[in-house]
Write a structure and sequence with these properties.
The complex is a heterodimer of chains A (about 210) and B (about 325).
Chain A lengths: L8 H23 L6 H21 L1 H8 L5 H26 L4 H10 L1 H18 L3 H7 L1 H6 L2 H19 L4 H30 L1 H5 L2
Helix pairs in contact in A: 1-2, 1-4, 2-4, 2-9, 2-10, 4-6, 5-6, 6-9, 9-10
Chain B lengths: L12 H4 L2 H19 L11 E2 L2 E2 L20 H6 L12 H5 L9 E6 L5 E4 H5 L5 E8 L4 E11 H8 L7 E6 L20 E5 H5 L4 E6 L2 E2 L9 E3 L12 E7 L6 H5 L23 E4 L7 E2 L7 H4 L13
Classes of the chains: A mainly alpha (about 210), B alpha+beta (about 325).
């Protein structure tokens, strides 16, 4: 007998939603709806999708705690990997079409322009997170895994700064400000949780050691 | 540089071509477009259908090139990839959102230090001037570029006619303010309206500086700045103010909109200069659309050095951005 594993509906929704931007870009490249400057379009869409995926990844933990839906945690790894996938495409499009496969030009750009430095750093941070996203690495690294994967906070922050700086050059910062607002809520959730735990830890140990 | 067309080209082709020839040409254009579409991704050189509207393109553009031998960009690319923030900040917004804009009738107010100020009807401005095709490179500050066959006349012709006085040191231009027809003007979040640009008097009088009323020998579409816009080919594209309603002759250097919005990144002169980077990207190279690669080396003054560099002798162009 063939054993059929049922794929939960929310996973299908996730895959469709996450692949939709890529499908739209590929179809557009063939059918010509990306406009006169397709590279600019691909760069913007992949950059934007990276940031949105990162923010959705960061909202999984609060979602799980607030709703009590434990299945949500299974969305976190694929979401994070999709974020990395779009960042990877974003970086490579820039390296190939803007920097012309030229390492010297690329390094020059990274060193000279904070806008690029910040974006590139965010991408670098995501690489070890993607590589260690498997169950095997989770087990091997133990508590260090949790610490390493806090890198997403920095990657997301740098990514939003990167987007803000680009938008500033075009005088329209509404979208990056919206993302910054969402990110600050997600970070505030972590900070308040951390403060809460610390408060409890300080209040407790003395009493328990008295015996 | 200036490429003068034959006399007959001054008349719109629709007025001189019998319908049979017209339809035959339309077929040619369609086929030419299809052939080239297979060569260039997402671009059809002479294809000219934009949002279902078909625009007849005069035959002379089939072979015409820039003075450096560069191919013209397609009518479609020129009219669907625009920065015209009054209609929205996405490149597709201007062609999508400018349908309600009414470029006729049009009046331009000439003000300031001139002997003949007043409200000039556009037809009246155009009556005495000689229109010509002008093939220029358009280099956007965002590091992409096109080669565009504008249709217009030298700004100097209008300036001479209105007789500026000795106090006129700069020219200040203003775009129309019509929030009911220009949706993005309903908010001031992005840029302060109306859009303002300016030129020094000698820049304004330079023979390359052009007032444009058309592209590809046909009427300028709304998204390209109808009915009257400026083209200063050796400067970044944003100096080419669109839908001009006011030309003022002033003594002090006017503050242009982009300098107002972001004085650290944009200046008054905004000459194309591969050596002066934008804080976010290098200006040494550009993407010559429809190419995908940012591999075209940007030329000093956008390739018009010989004609214009004398305007800036002794000026530190790193300082005067």
């Amino acid at each position: 007998m063939i054993h059929k594993t049922r794929i939960p509906a929310f996973k299908i929704v996730l895959w469709v939603a996450a692949l939709a931007p890529a499908a739209w870009l590929i179809a557009g490249a063939f059918l010509g709806w990306l406009g006169a400057n397709p590279i600019e379009k691909v760069t913007h869409v992949t950059g934007m999708t990276t940031l949105v995926s990162l923010l959705v990844t960061l909202s999984i933990t609060p979602l799980r705690r607030l709703t009590g839906w434990s299945g949500a945690i299974r969305l976190r790894r694929p979401l994070g990997l999709f974020a990395f996938f779009y960042a990877f495409v974003h970086f490579n499009i820039w390296f190939v079409f803007d920097q012309l496969f030229n390492w010297r030009l690329m390094v020059e750009d990274i060193i000279e322009r904070p806008f690029v430095t910040v974006g590139f750093t965010a991408f670098l941070i995501l690489i070890p997170l993607a590589l260690t996203s498997t169950k095997g690495w989770m087990r091997r690294l133990g508590t260090r895994w949790t610490k390493l994967h806090r890198g997403i906070y920095f990657a997301a922050t740098l990514g939003v700064v990167h987007f803000y700086w680009l938008a500033k050059a075009k005088a329209d910062v509404r979208l990056p400000l919206l993302l910054a607002f969402c990110l600050s809520l997600l970070l505030a959730y972590r900070v308040s949780g951390w403060l809460e735990r610390r408060r409890r830890m300080i209040a407790r140990p003395r009493g328990s050691s008295a015996g | 540089m200036i490429i003068r067309s034959k006399k007959s080209s001054d008349i719109p082709s629709s007025e001189i071509t019998p319908p049979e020839v017209y339809l035959e040409r339309r077929r040619f254009i369609r086929e030419a477009g299809l052939g080239l579409a297979t060569l260039a991704l997402g671009s059809t050189a002479l294809s000219n259908e934009v949002a279902g509207q078909s625009q007849e393109i005069p035959a002379r553009f089939r072979t015409i090139k820039s003075e450096l031998g560069e191919e013209l960009n397609s009518y479609r690319d020129i009219t669907t990839y625009n920065n015209f923030y009054e209609f929205g900040t996405d490149k597709r917004d201007p062609s999508r959102n400018s349908g309600d804009f009414e470029p006729k009738p049009w009046t331009v107010s000439i003000e300031g230090h001139v002997n003949k100020p007043g409200n000039y009807k556009l037809d009246d401005i155009l009556a005495p001037v000689t229109m010509e095709d002008r093939i220029y490179r358009l280099r956007c500050v965002e590091a992409w570029s096109m080669v565009i066959p504008w249709y217009g006349f030298p700004l100097s012709a209008l300036i001479e006619r209105v007789e500026p006085t000795g106090n006129a040191k700069f020219v200040r231009f203003e775009t129309v303010y019509r929030p009911e027809q220009m949706p993005a003007q309903r908010t001031r979040v992005v840029l302060p309206w109306p859009y303002v640009e300016g030129l020094r008097m000698d820049e304004a009088m330079h023979p390359l500086t052009t007032l444009v009323t058309g592209v590809y020998g046909t009427e300028l579409p709304n998204q390209n700045g109808a009915p009257l816009r400026l083209i200063v080919p050796w400067k970044y594209g944003f100096k080419g103010i669109k839908s001009i309603v006011k030309i003022e002759f002033v003594e002090r250097m006017p503050t242009n909109t982009w300098k107002m919005a972001n004085p650290f990144e944009y200046g008054f002169y905004s000459n194309v200069n591969p050596e002066v980077s934008h804080p976010r990207w290098s200006q040494a190279r550009e993407r010559r659309l429809p190419s995908l690669f940012k591999s075209y080396e940007t030329l000093m003054f956008n390739g018009y050095s010989e004609e214009v560099s004398h305007l800036y002798t002794g000026m530190d162009l790193h300082r005067w951005k």
